Amino acid sequence: MRRWSVIAVPYFWLLLFFLVPFIIVLKISLSDVATAIPPYIPVLDFSQGLSGISDFFAELDFENYAFVFSDELYVSAYWSSLKIAALSTFFTLIIAYPIAYGMARAPREWQPTLVMLVILPFWTSFLIRVYAWMGILKKEGLLNLLLMNLGLIDEPLTILNTNTAVYIGIAYSYLPFMILPLYASLEKISPALLEAAEDLGSRPWRAFWQVTFPLSIPGVVAGCFLVFIPAVGEFVIPDLLGGSETLMIGKTLWNEFFNNRDWPVSSAVAVILLLVLVIPIVLFQRNQQKQREAGA
Amino acid sequence: MSGRFSWFNATSIGLGFAFLYIPILLLVIYSFNESKLVTVWGGWSTKWYAGLLDNEGLMNAAWVTLRVALLSATIATVLGTLAAIVLVRMGRFPGRTLFSGMIFAPLVMPEVITGLSLLLLFVAIGFDRGFWTVTVAHVTFSMCYAAVVVQARLFDFDKSVEEAAMDLGATPVKTFFEVTLPIIAPSVISAWLLSFTLSLDDLVIASFATGPGATTLPMKIYSQVRLGVTPEINAISTLMIGVVTLGVLVASYTTKRAAARQRRETRAVDAGAA
User: How close A231 gets to chain B, by Cα (Å)?
Assistant: First the structure.
């Protein structure tokens, strides 16, 4: 009895506030738009009983989905989200790798402190960290001021409200997610392996590419998923740092919902976004499973 | 790898940490700027902080945020700890796969989708949106993070201690409160802190779940940030950074001490047994 009550409480909570809402999104994505409150006409009306269900199948259409796919804006927003997320993930990897490498090779007694210093900014509000970059990147901002004073540029660069600012924002905000798995896999590599490579006449650079890097691939894969998956649906970064040319689906969904008040279409956009993300999420899950089994 | 930093490692760590910390540092420094212009340094001043106290909207939002965070973190920690026990200790039961899926999914779900789906639920059941809906939304995603944190600790620890207590006649509830909970306590505290900061931080989900009268601090900051960089926002950001940093440092110090004490005690027990 007691066993069941322990299971039931969190189970019921998640069913009610995670699964049911999702089913509602699915249902509304199939409804028609209406100028009413709530602004949609439900297709599936349970109060009608069996005839409601048969009406549902009779009137079932995917017009909101058809609309999303036929509109250039949405399709390119999905593409551009994937592209921006992929590029930012790559930049994050390039920045994070040397840091994680340095941490893994640092004196042992320093390592817990270094890990803590990587995590600390992550506790600071995401919004504030993105906002900090607005002051740096804007036209009369601190970066332009520095570069002009150094005489490197004559005209201020336009960085804020471009895709470049979005790449910087994502790389900055998600850096700890990349550093930590990289560090975890690099730290496990025995220095004896590198010494062996050196003894056999391998130069450091070659030893890195043939020994260290292949052994760190599990960390690279885990880190890339941890950055890529949330970056695709990101809203705050493209909204604050990106410009009018920056198309990302999280921002599109937000505008569709709050500005156009088109609930059925925003629900359809959400369902498709989730379908797009299912592939990387499942791959990530499988990869984690494989790592756990290899570790056991 | 004991000994010294090589020049390459020291440089990459130095540059990396500069990248991580300089933006935050600049934000803090410019919150003390006398001038309203972000790039013009007009000397030190704390006038923007004094202005915050008079800003009633901001103070109300801060109060709402704090209440939501305290309440949602506490409920999320209880539910998350229960969920972790279910996942690690309960073995197989019908619907287990669905349960672990529902714990994992919110961690990777884009915030816009979580927010949208919760809002549509609240509209569908006709629940008035405001303080309570934001709290419920925060509990739902925080409890999954809490469950993962506590689960990791439950995996490591020796089940035989619990079994010994039950063999000695303790009821499962008594065993939980007197044996299990003290052992997993550091992870329960971390779970609470994580839930608390996640709630403090959230903009997207709160924007969907909220209603009139329950504007949170991130929502307030966001609406001002969209208009541009101002010293007032730097000041309020600096205060938030200060509070969170202090909290994390104190928490990590106390959990480290608790862990050290626990290690000493286990060692004493082991020595006694030998």
Answer: 9
**Is ipTM over 0.90?**
no
Neighbours of B172 (CB within 10 A): 15
CA atoms within 13 A on the CB side of A178: 28
Distance from CA of A218 to the nearest CA of B (A): 19
How many residues does this entry show for chain B?
274
CA A186/CA A218 separation, integer angstroms:
10
- Which residues fall within 8 angstroms of residue B180, CB to CB, at 6 or more apart? B85, B162
- Domains, chain A, ordered by start: 62-295 (1.10.3720.10)
Q: What is the pLDDT of residues B139-194, one digit of tens each?
A: 999 999 999 999 988 888 778 888 888 888 888 888 888 888 988 888 898 899 88
CA atoms within a 13 Å half-sphere pointing along the CA-CB vector of B243: 13
Cβ distance B23 to A132 under 8 Å?
yes
Please, which residues have CB within 8 angstroms of residue A43's CB and are 6 or more apart in sequence?
A27, A30, A31, A32, A55, A56, A59, A60
State phi, psi for B55 to the nearest 5 degrees.
-80, 95
Tell me, rounded to whole angstroms, the distance of Cα B274 from its chain centroid: 41
Instruction: List all residues of chain B from 70 to 89 with a beta carbon under 8 Å from chain A.
Output: 79-80, 82-83, 85-86
